[in-house]
Amino acid sequence: xxxxxxxxNYTLRTITLGTTVLGAICGMLGSFAVLRKQSLLGDAISHAxxxxxxxxxxxxxxxxxxxxxxxxxxxxxxxxxxxxxxVRRTRLKSDTALGLILSLFFGFGMLLLTFIQKMPNANQxxxxxxxxxxxxxxxxxxxxxxxxxxxxxxxxLLLFWKELKLLLFDADYTKTLGFNTKFxxxxxxxxxxxxxxxxxxxxxxxxMSAMLLAPAAAARQWTNSLGTMIILASIxxxxxxxxxxxxxxxxxxxxxxxxxxxxAAGFVLISFVFSPSRGILFRELRFRQNRKELHxxxxxxxxxxxxxxxxxxxxxxxIRILNNFQGFTKKTLTKLEExxxxxxxxxxxxxxxxxxxxxxxMYNELGKSHD
Amino acid sequence: xxxxxxxxQIDDLTVAYDYKPVLWDIDLVVPxxxxxxxxxxxxxxxxxxxxxxxxxxxxxxxxxKVFGKPYKKQVDKVAYVPQKGSVDWxxxxxxxxxxxxxxxxxxxxxxxxxxxEKKASLEALEKVGMLEFKDRQISQLSGGQQQRIFLAxxxxxxxxxxxxxxxxxxxxxxxxxxxxxxxxxxxxxxxxLIVVHHDLQTVxxxxxxxxxxxxxxxxxxxxxxxxxxxxxxxxxxxxxKVAVTQ
Amino acid sequence: xxxxQVEIQLIAALVAMACAIPGTFLVLRKMAMISxxxxxxxxxxxxxxxxxxxxxxxxxxxxxxxxTGVITVVMVxxxxxxxxxxxxxxxxxxxxxLFSIGVILIAKNANDVxxxxxxxxxxxxxxxxxxxxxxxxTDIGPKSLWVIGTILLxxxxxxxxxxxxxxxxxxxKGLAATxxxxxxxxxxxxxxxxSVTIVGAFDAVGAVLVVALVIAPAATAYLLTNDLKKxxxxxxxFGVFSAIAGYWMANLLDASIxxxxxxxxxxxxxxxxxxxxxxxxxxxxxxxxxQRKEVxxxxxxxxxxxxxxxxxxxxxxxxxxINWQKVQARTVLDLAKRNNLIQISNxxxxxxPKGEEFTQEALRYITTNKETAIEELKTKFFLFRx
Lengths: 371, 246, 386
Prior knowledge:
The structure holds 3 protein chains of 3 kinds.
Chain A: H1 5-8, H2 10-35, H3 39-48, H4 50-60, H5 65-89, H6 94-117, H7 129-132, H8 140-159, H9 161-169, H10 171-176, H11 181-203, H12 208-220, H13 226-249, H14 256-274, H15 280-307, E1 317-318, H16 330-338, E2 342-345, E3 348-351, H17 353-369
Antiparallel strand pairs in A: 1-3, 2-3
Helix pairs in contact in A: 2-8, 2-11, 2-12, 2-13, 3-5, 3-6, 3-12, 4-5, 4-6, 5-6, 5-11, 8-11, 11-12, 12-13, 12-14, 13-14, 15-16, 15-17
Chain B: E1 8-17, E2 20-30, E3 35-39, H1 46-53, E4 61-66, E5 78-81, H2 95-107, H3 115-127, H4 143-156, E6 161-165, H5 173-188, E7 192-196, H6 203-206, E8 209-214, E9 216-222, H7 223-226, H8 229-236, H9 240-245
Parallel strand pairs in B: 3-7, 3-8, 5-6, 6-7
Antiparallel strand pairs in B: 1-2, 1-4, 8-9
Helix pairs in contact in B: 2-3, 2-4, 3-4
Chain C: H1 3-28, H2 32-53, H3 59-82, H4 87-108, H5 117-122, E1 132-135, E2 138-142, H6 143-161, H7 163-171, H8 173-178, H9 183-205, H10 209-222, H11 228-253, H12 257-275, H13 281-306, H14 310-313, H15 317-320, H16 326-338, E3 342-345, E4 348-351, H17 353-367, H18 373-380
Antiparallel strand pairs in C: 1-2, 3-4
Helix pairs in contact in C: 1-6, 1-9, 1-10, 1-11, 2-3, 2-4, 2-9, 2-10, 3-4, 3-9, 6-9, 9-10, 10-11, 10-12, 11-12, 13-16, 13-17
Family (chain A): Belongs to the ABC-3 integral membrane protein family.
Protein name (chain A): Metal ABC transporter permease
Keywords (chain A): Cell membrane, Membrane, Transmembrane, Transmembrane helix, Transport
């Protein structure tokens, strides 16, 4: 398949449009999941929707995408409420509750799926695609559904922007200002569940949660504004969708879910390492830079203490007396000489006037901060 | 009429977490215009008391009235400064944004803050000496600065009653001075301030009213009348002297 | 029952037991989701190992895959330490990425690898008995039986050897460290055992369902007992029961064995969740109702002790001032009267000497923050019997 097919082929265009929209809504709503510390809830919800998919098929006997979505939605919601029930009513902690519901619902779903496979109804094939996602099965109607949901959630987000932001940052305070936090909570949770269910056909039950988390986690690294973070997350999500679909469509036998997730993981990796303000790389560089400067400063003040007792401050001293001083290296000496703070002649050093002035200010400041 | 109503009136308030009692049959009247400290040992229910006044926690018995009406009807009259540790400071937002949140209550649902709200927020930032940090990401502020931001957020609410949960916890001496000056100024302007406080030494210097709390209400009144050994012993047990001379 | 059927049930039972042991500690240490992360992220390790060994039961493959599991834990902890994202997000990011690599590796090499996606998700328990281990030409049973048997034996021996340390570090990390048990070594030891077990079980039940075998028996047991030893035994029992019942259910429905095992575990958990004597939903509901009554009674008594003027002690005051519903007020009043804690004359309630003493005592307990205070009091004053 050629790249140009992408722009001429109607099916491909539909699919690409679908995954783009899906990626965008996942990034948008995923930001909320990440900031509410509900990252793993998405994983539980998506797994919990599997029995709903299977039951919808068994009960109706037809493979209608919308019916299956409703089944998934119902069983995902049951799973969510049961998790909350377990945490509230028993001594089990949320991690156990999540793992329980995730694996038990999924297991039951798999039981039903294998049961369906043995059913005489020849129509059964194709439910497998909900495990790892198959974007190729998207049709125009699916894209319309996705676009509508995205539009609605965008409007809701804009309408309640102020309230949702407040809730994310400080839920108790939100309550004291007179806002109904329960309503806001239900609002945002239902949209997250909706996004998950919509993504099942494309990304699949098993990996859907990553689609929600990864773009948001990547976006968080580049900005300190919630609005920008959500926009960036949508963009990362959309690109993951497009690239993932393109790559998996160009290969045989490759589900879209894993590819999209890997592209999104790539965004995360790049962001973790290369983000200028938070990234690991620049943080490490800054850390080293600070340490080096600290060494220089320490060495210079040490020299200052030796020098200040002499009448002639530029009087030379042996380098070896510095050896007792921790943190001193040859490199620090050359660095100091480069900055014309000291002079080196043979195995002796002497301080310049510039170095003396700088050191004395530093020394005095140090003294002050110790008071 | 309003002047005769107490700022806060609490009757027979009992609160329990998982049916383990934390506040017992509290009766408390806070007159308007006082600067009051709530003191008591750890686990005495000080934060819980504040949260029950604000309706964050539901009591199992008793009632709270703000200027004679339930809190729900008086939301706009009360400002809250939560404990600094209660929120995630890595949240993607800047100082000015947090202060603006104080205006959300009076705006109500859906309506967005405009120039007027922004101006008020900037003024509040200036009052707490944080104007130059208005665009700073909140995680890059020091503990004292974060506390000032929270105070500014409450100031913007322009309320009559201020409830503060340990505003001096983990702040530097300068911030503590700055905060107490603002509190005193607010009291002069006729506001009522209720502050959960830990440092017994500074109570007489900072406050004019005090409530002793240890699950039960021990005493409440003017500092010069009731801040004495007797009440301290009742609240903290025989070791109270250690707490004072620390 | 054919010998193949017996063998399948035996393997399933051993797998379930092997999973339940580390699972108990993961649940108690609030690290249950780590098992989810490990079970997904070992997939690339298994696929790579399979390329090398061409044998799913090879010890080398198991070690290689288990290593991927431990690396996952290290990676998650590294990301958590950078503070770039929250702890749970770190887990949620790492394992889908590694799992995706595994799935893609399988898909790209579908022709060379006899591993398919169904096997990844469901395991191949039904075929396990056909891969036999032969020593010197004699058949000594299915390979996977030996593999999981060895893993189980190792983890039981480690459990017995380090029981004290594990128990201590699970319930009191600080104390364990001061007593000289390195929490780090125990932590990574547990992670290694979990990884090896999950790899060993993966072959039988697949990536996601192994999580059910790790978490569900332990969680179910935790709702029934407080004793670590009993919890371990119960978890193993639930695991074995689900293995055998699940096998027959799968037989009946002609469906996946692993799926049936999980479903049985789900039903077990649901029943215990509802009916467990201490922790179950019903008993918690009734206990909370009882506690609400008790606390209300104490509130009322304390109120009487606190206030001497008759207005505050008037029976009707209960309703309007303490803000109680009529029914609740009536119940509390009755309860206090029945236990001889109060007397009522002219609609004014006052404490009896017994009530006086009880309230004093209750207050002392409550202000010293004793957990069991109320229970002790109840027995002391023969309360709530009437």
